Amino acid sequence: MNQDQKYYYDPESCSFEEVKCTWKDYAAQVGRIVGLALILAGLAVWALDVYWVTTPEEQSLKVENKALERQLDRVNGQMSTLSTQIDTLAKRDKKLYRRLFQMKPISEDVRQVGVGGSDPYKEFDEMGEDASSLLKKTAQKLDKLERQVSLQGTSYQELSEMAKKRSNRLTQLPAIQPTNGPIVSGYGMRKHPILKVRKMHAGVDFLVRPGTPVMATGNGEIRRATYSPAYGNFVEVRHPEAGYSTRYAHLSEIPDGIARGVEVQRGDTIGFSGNTGRSTGPHLHYEVHNQSGETLDPMRFFVPDMSPEQYHELEKRTQEYYSRSDEPQSESGGRAAR
Questions:
Q1: Can you give the C-alpha Rg of the chain in angstroms?
Q2: How far apart are CA 97 and CA 93, in angstroms?
Q3: Residue 322 and residue 335: Cα distance in Å, rounded?
Q4: DSSP conformation class of 123
Q5: Do the Cβ atoms of 258 and 270 come closer than 8 Å?
Q6: What residues contact residue 130 under an 8 Å CB cut-off, 6+ apart?
Q7: Cβ-proximal residues to 172 (8 Å cutoff; 6+ apart), any chain
Q8: Distances 68 to 56, 61, 134, 135, 149 between C-alpha atoms, Å
Q9: How confident is the model at residue 76 (pLDDT cuts 50, 70, 90)?
């Protein structure tokens, strides 16, 4: 029996009969072989097209994609650098600027600004894994950077406004001497030259000739320009931003333009020294008050560069000056007090 030959069993004859192939059988077999060959050829062409063969347009797109990925990587690096710099500014804001202006620092919860919602970057999920990851990373950094810049901009706006207020306060501080002349009586308890009793001397006295210009010691607004039995002709200036008021007493003359509500600048002439009111001789009596009306030592304001030793030495000389005599001296060389 030929092994290559095919047989079938015939039950009627109880024997094996040889299978005889017709032309249809040969055609079907050839068709199957050709069909399988076509399928394999199609798969081969598809694989070549996808993995090995690309059109010029596809090659150009691949080059562009690579270039965009490199650019995004550079942008990511630049945003990381900017974020680090903003963090440095935020630390300086907290440790220097806000401490300098005595402002409450921005809380860490506010500084660690985040994005609400479950996933604001879902639109990138439909892209490839690498592209999706890169785009999400870039978008997250960009969003954080925008919020950091916005927050820091708001903070600097607040600091700028506070600096402006501080600048106004500094210009209103009674920081200069109101006239040119030696200080002959300091702030504190002393024996009153007229009443002959120990009494609080609420300011300092400058020994100057009558008619010497008297200047505002800080920017402010005239509160009073009038006469009283004790102070004589006097001017009072409010310095609201600084929280003080100053008083200039025993004036010989108050200029016509100096009246209630008039704004003055530091160094403006607001009067001329004299000997009006309860005074023993020509001089200027100068006081500084706080918002509660309490008097303060003017020496604390217009001599900020004086050392404690120099201040105590001046105070000692003032006390010695008044201990030598209880009587007022002549106009040319004596003392004068309110």
A1: 48
A2: 5
A3: 8
A4: G
A5: yes
A6: 69
A7: 218, 219, 220, 239, 240, 241, 242, 244
A8: 18, 10, 11, 11, 26
A9: confident
Residue owning tokens 């030259």: 193
In whole angstroms, give the CA distance from residue 37 to residue 183: 118
Average per-residue pLDDT for the chain: 76
Give the tokens for residue 214: 């008297």
* CATH superfamily label, 183-323: Glucose Permease (Domain IIA) (2.70.70.10)
| Token couple for 225 | 């320009």
Whole-number Å distance between alpha carbons of 246 and 237? 5
Q: Which residue has the tokens 């650098």?
A: 81
**Which amino acid, one-letter code, is at 223?**
R
Average pLDDT over residues 171-176: 89
Which is more confident, 257 or 314?
Answer: 257
Altogether, the residues listed in the chain come to a count of 338
Phi and psi at residue 253, in whole multiples of 5°? Answer: -155, 140
Which one-letter amino acid corresponds to residue 209? R
3-state secondary structure of 140: helix
113 secondary structure, DSSP code: -
Q: What H or E segment, with its residue span, contains residue 59?
A: helix 56-92
The DSSP symbol for 136 reads: H
d(CA 218, CA 167): 12
Instruction: Report pTM.
Output: 0.51
Residue type, 154: T
Q: How far is CA 140 from the centre of its chain?
A: 25
Domain borders along the chain are 7-52, 56-172, 183-323
Least confident of 41-55, 93-107, 188-202: 93-107
Pairing of strands 244-253, 232-239: antiparallel
At residue 325, the pLDDT reads: 44
SS3 236: strand
Please report how many Cα atoms fall inside a 13 Å half-sphere around the Cα of residue 28, on the Cβ side.
5
Q: Which amino acid is at 115?
A: V
Residue 97's nearest CA partner among 30, 144, 149, 158 is 158
Contacts of 126 (CB under 8 A, 6+ apart): 132
